[in-house]
Design brief:
By secondary structure, this protein is of the alpha+beta class. The termini are far apart.
């Protein structure tokens, strides 16, 4: 059941107008036309990705996992397709000092059963020393396979912060697609849900109605202190870490460089 205010002027200042359900539905239907066009454009982009040329590389190059060095081809787990998330790493930093953006991305892929059902494997790689990586993976409770690619060249190693796709044909390996920045957002379902909410992501760059909360810097909510207050200060952790057994308040990120 919906109600219409006797006087629309009583609607909260700076908010969209308050209307009856029929008027809302008409506006919603108009927006749906644009949403469908956006979906179809996304389909066209996906089709273009499938037609990108491929780069063949040596799939026998070794990466380091819980069982020691293994050939990169092992990450396919016998399947023909592989999606890899390349997790940034701060050498020597404690758990709370590791990359909050990459923590966000990895946390949103708790398992890959649906990918596996489609014949696609998933793995996370990073440039950290394996002993540090293993400790972090255990602390976070990740169940996806992780590997160290320290010292390994592109396209297996190299720059981190990417989602990268590979194809296998027997013992041959091919790079097919790679993206970074906002291109990795498909791994994070929370972004899509936040984009549907009235206040969105709460970030200043977003286009909002006049008078709407303008928000803060991008990704301001990725780190919080022990009380749940969003902060990028030395007492913060990437948000999921506060759910981990043994996570305690901290006094330092234990790292140098950008907070990203």
């Amino acid at each position: 059941m919906t109600t219409t205010p006797r006087n629309p002027a009583t609607a909260p200042p700076g908010r969209p107008p308050v209307v009856d359900l029929a008027t809302w539905q008409a506006a919603r239907n108009e927006l749906l036309v644009h949403e469908k066009a956006h979906t179809h454009e996304g389909d066209a982009l996906a089709a273009a990705r499938r037609r990108l040329p491929m780069v063949e590389f040596d799939g026998s190059v070794e990466v380091v996992g819980p069982d020691g060095p293994v050939p990169f081809l092992d990450l396919f787990q016998g399947r023909d397709e592989l999606v890899v998330y390349k997790h940034m790493w701060y050498d020597g930093a404690p758990h709370q000092g590791q990359c909050e953006g990459c923590t966000d991305a990895a946390w949103h892929v708790p398992d890959a059963v649906y990918l596996n059902a489609r014949g696609v494997s998933f793995a996370v790689v990073t440039t950290g020393h394996w002993d540090e990586v293993a400790s972090f993976v255990a602390f976070m409770g990740y169940t996806q396979p992780w590997y160290s690619v320290r010292g390994v060249e592109e396209p297996v190693g190299g720059e981190m912060g990417y989602l990268t796709c590979f194809l296998r044909d027997g013992d041959r390996a091919f790079l097919t697609y790679s993206t970074t920045g906002r291109g990795i957002e498909p791994a994070n379902g929370s972004f899509g849900l936040l984009d549907m909410t009235p206040y969105g992501r709460g970030e200043a760059w977003e286009d909002k109605p006049e008078g709407w909360p303008q928000g803060g810097d991008a990704c301001w909510y990725w780190r919080t202190d022990a009380d749940g207050n969003a902060t990028w200060g030395p007492t913060s952790r990437p948000v999921p870490q506060w759910t981990r057994p043994g996570a305690t308040p901290v006094e330092s990120l234990g790292r140098h460089g950008d907070h990203s």
